[in-house]
Amino acid sequence: MSTHSLPNTSQNQPALTTNTSVKTTRYDSLYKVLHWLVGSLILLMLIAKIGFANAITTEDKLNMLIGHSSIGSVLALLIIIRVVKRFVIKSERPIQTIPNWQKRLSGIVHLALYFCLIMIPLTGYLSASFHQLPVMPFTLINLSRVSSSGYVEADFLLMRSIHENMINLLIILLFVHIGGALYHKFIKKDDVMATMTPSKKIKKVE
What we know:
The protein is mostly helical and about 210 residues long. It has one domain: Fumarate Reductase Cytochrome B subunit (Up-down Bundle). Helix content is about 60%, strand content about 0%. α2 runs antiparallel to α3, α3 packs across α4 and α4 packs antiparallel against α5. The longest helix is centred in the C-terminal third of the chain and has 36 residues. The radius of gyration is 25 Å and the shape is elongated. The two termini are about 50 Å apart. The relative contact order is 0.13.
């Protein structure tokens, strides 16, 4: 039988395609809540750092440590959720229409921010453990873990140094991050900052 008599099914049937051309234009609600909560708590911790430096009595220092560990524990929990959402679940994020060099720089800054936000609570907890200091979030639970070797000044000083250096690096990265957001908002006047804020509608990227 001639093959010309067979119907051409490839022409008669519509092609099965998935519409993936429309991309999200905003971070989802959980991303936004995590972003602004973490940012607010970081600001609170930096302010508290000044108060801690001015604490004089032992009681004042103890109260500051309890407050520090309370905020730090909440911050650590939020960071864990953020890391899982970003790197494990890999929730969809908006594609920014910016030059490639800005995308690369933004990616480096964001990864460095994640690194600092992981290392700061970790080294803070280890510093407290090495010095046998209290880690008592809201005085509800004692998370203190006394080092089996007791107080070793060298270990404590090393961990505290890493902790403080990570904080200093975080401050620098925050200036770059906030400066970049303000640059796009007021100089470029594009929609980059709007992807993380409940502002006006953004034109869809296709």
